[in-house]
Amino acid sequence: MQASRITTIGATTTTLLLGLTACGGGGGGGEANAWVLNGGVWPVVEEDFEAWNEENPDQAITVDSFANDVYKERIRTAVGSGEAPTLIVGWTGGTLLEYVEHDYVVDLTESTEDLRERLIDSVVANGEVDGSTYAVPMNNVQPVVMYVNQAVFDEVGVDVPTDWDEMLEAVEAFNDADIVPFALAGGSRWPMLMWASYLTDRIGGPEAFDAVVAGEPDAWSHPAIIEALERVQELLDAEAFDPNFSSVVADQNEDAQMLADGRAAMVLQGSWVYSRMLEDVPDFAASGDLAFTTFPEIPGGAGDPANIVGNPANFWSVSADASEEDQQAGIDYLSEHLFNDESVDAMLETGNIPPLEGLEEKIADTEDEEFLGFAYDMVRDAPSFQLSWDQAVDPSQEQPLLENLESVFLGQITPEEFAENMNATQPE
């Protein structure tokens, strides 16, 4: 499949309009609050809170903004100590299971029924535990896609790869031309998961990792996971990544910057990077050289090439430690205001896709129709949309997973040692 090409970009830079509160939680009551991330679609989310506050001054919700990795470090401590914000951003998976098991979040099944009827079922399902809803999607669908600098491909005379063999041929050609084949933000570690998860799915289908999530003994030793990491080693041996990848950081969009500068030919990243490129490198985006495609096929693999990995969306949960008044403010915001017409239009204008049914006409009217339509079709048509591994596993496994995967990428352990180490972390 050839990469789709962006021909026109309508970038809209959004200004952060809300003041930040001190980092207190919702447990004390008296003022509902929310923690959000920065960059990408998050300024739209903050503006949506401003609109809510203007319309509902008696239920105003204040906002704190954090970088991705900083947020992940702080939120677990805040939730466990009873100092969580009223509205908690999450990625569902193992973390949501932990929240529900410890009664950290409230049941939203009845209060969000009308909202959920408007949303894509496969996305909504990620917020359910034992048939009840404890989290609802709150922003854009986030499949992982392969971004391409088409000008670099044209210069070297290489076609965008559609399968494993073509990808290795492209790696060799770019190295010969002194261009990094793939930018990789190894300093943030979690971008490495995108490679491991896509390769595992292409080789063994979603069942391979589903066994890990289900807690099956020795699930990390599944042949598909072992082979996926062997192929990672093959890429490393072929010098597919920047030799300094371990110092590149995703929070600063450094991997995408390498793509825009022409220092790298490709980058495997989430769809949220598109909106960040609209803001950070608008000239590159507008040049028509930014292209995108799906992850290459693995010949003979059991996984459907239409399967995707990433984050179905970020999700809102409501803290059970917030006061009843603050909880109600949060619930009313979710049930009455989330995904209103203005916020949906603002998301689309900034290159982000809400998880709503029937967006085809709205997407067709945007200046970014090519990318938005591409990503929307990926989500709508995917037989499987697998949640990012670090969010899907039990929270106790997140750090060991990132550490062991980093060790594989650095050549410090073998795939078999990775599996042995991770099997030892499986919850009883």
Automatic annotation (TrEMBL):
Coiled-coil regions listed: none
Pfam families to which the protein is assigned, alphabetical: SBP_bac_8
Protein name: Extracellular solute-binding protein
Gene source species: Nesterenkonia aethiopica
